[in-house]
Amino acid sequence: MAILPLLQAASQSVGFNPAYAGAWAMLGAGIGAGLSAIGAGIGIGLIGGRVAEAQARQPEISGTIFANGIIIAALIEGVALFGVVVCLLIELKKYF
Question: Is the pTM of this model over 0.85?
Answer without folding.
Answer: no
